[in-house]
Amino acid sequence: MPINSVQRRALNTSMKNISLPYGKKELLLKLPEGPHYEFIAPIDHSASPDPLQTVGEALDHPCDGVRLFDFPAPRKVAIAINDKTRPVPHFELLYPLVRRLNNMGVSNAQIIFIIASGTHKPMPSTEYPEVLPKELSSNHTVIAHDCDCKNELKYLGTTSFGTPVWANRVFMEADIRIVVGNIEPHHFMGFSGGVKSAAIGLSGRETICHNHAFITHPNARLGCYENNPMRQDVEEIGKMMGVHYAVNAILDKDKNLVHAVAGEPLAVMAAGIPLSRKICQVPVTDKFDVVIASCGGYPKDINLYQAQKAQTNASLITRDGGTIILVAQCVEGIGSQGFEEFMQDVHSIDEVIKKFKQSEFQIGPHKAFLFARIGRRVNTMLVSEISQSVVKNLLLTPSSNVNAALKLALANCPDHPRIAILPHAVATVPLIV
Predict the structure, then answer these.
(1) Which domains does the chain have, with CATH numbers?
(2) Rounded-to-integer distance, Cα 380 and Cα 292, Å
(3) Is 162 helix (H, G, I), strand (E, B) or coil?
(4) Which of 14, 330, 369, 419 could form an S-S bond across to 384 if both were Cys, CB 3.0 to 4.6 Å?
């Protein structure tokens, strides 16, 4: 039976079944008697009863006091939006934004939406309705960024971190450059949001690779913002791009809009991060033998590349030698050819880490490093639709279903094991207190 989430709840033996998000459906987890179970999820926050009004109020009362109306009348406005791998509520964020631009005298023909693909495969036009309301996609120009098309990039110089900045040329040619997205904890960027949609989403591959090479830095971690070199490099990239404005949402575990913040990007991050922390952070008293972690369903488990974020969060409360059961449908498979190819000639966790550190940094193989870094300490079982042979090649343990995985994990546990269940692991930051 479904259970209403609270910060932490011990489950009694009468609670036999729990539904776990899995793609666009759910899996039924059956709990055997004996272990101590805890259900760990973000605190329930009331979603906005009128998201459009909430976003409108954020636009009318920006964090830094600078409204869109304060900008000179633009000839062209470029808006960076996220691709289908991010659960951004574009409908709620974009309609109020476009309405205010129209009220400034900006016509629909002067507004262009750029899908911030980063290193992901650019979305074809047939998929635009997946991220953009039909009315907006039909009345405005929409393009998808391609990080590998040098003709579409403009060189801006180098950050103080040594990152060469190549930016989307169309975005740079606009008079007002706006980013739209979510603020939420990020497993190595600290937090998403702010200029990241442009600084990473609309950059060239060389820019993204140099920035992401900070992944081995001890401060490139979940929830670390001010001292995170990767994130602070992103802020510099955003300044060099001249991002004028950010409109960001803070969502609950069910992807409903709770808060909206707008204004100058740094001011938006300063206001939005505390709001995100209040929703996502959950205090936990001790580590667990087994952590069952669902990403939270589609699109967070669209592929393994995205699903790895849930493993990071689950690892925070998994004891050394324990097991993470990662529940991720992965309807699009691994999601990274570079990740898959990197793993073809390695046969152990130590080999993965050694190869990664000896190789030039590339997007894709960095996921292999993240899996391996956690794999040094805990075992990860994957419940997905990826073939078991492929999962084994990734040095993960495949399982046919979540109940079989739990049975196997319990067989390797000490007496009186402690089991944690994270039904929305990507949106949950468990902290040992």
Answers:
(1) 8-34+285-432 (3.90.226.30), 51-279 (3.40.50.11440)
(2) 10
(3) coil
(4) 330
Integer angstrom CA distances of residue 32 from 13, 89, 380, 403: 8, 38, 20, 9
pLDDT tens digits, 221-265: 999 999 999 999 999 999 999 999 999 999 998 889 999 999 999
Q: Tell whether the model's pLDDT for residue 2 goes beyond 50.
A: no
Where do we find the tokens 């702010």?
194
What are the pLDDT digits (tens) for 299-316? Answer: 999 999 999 999 999 999
Q: Could you give the 3-state DSSP secondary structure of residue 150?
A: helix
DSSP 71-136: SPPPS-EEEEEE-TTS---HHHHHHHHHHHHHHTT--GGGEEEEEE-TTSPPPPGGGGGGTS-HHH
Order of strands, sheet of 245-251, starting from the edge strand that comes earlier in the sequence? 141-144, 111-116, 77-82, 176-182, 245-251, 257-263
pLDDT tens readout for residues 53-110? 999 999 999 998 888 988 988 999 999 999 988 889 999 999 999 999 999 999 999 9
pTM of the prediction?
Answer: 0.86
Beta partners for 78? 112, 177
